[in-house]
Known about the structure:
Blueprint: H1 3-21, H2 25-32, H3 36-43, H4 51-63
Amino acid sequence: MTEKDQLSEFAREIIDFQRKNDLTDAEMALNSHVSVEHIHNIKAMREAPDPTIVASLRDYMEHKPNGK
């Protein structure tokens, strides 16, 4: 799998998570402590996220408390 395909898959994971949990980019940024600009750029595939950003987003998506 190429780097672009991997990035695209991560972008899809974010989008699916947001749909499932009814979250905007701003809400996800606030809760995951990742800037909204990074989230926008990842979803638009304009940036390859730093591993720490990926880790922060994955940690939030795996451990999201109810109601947030």
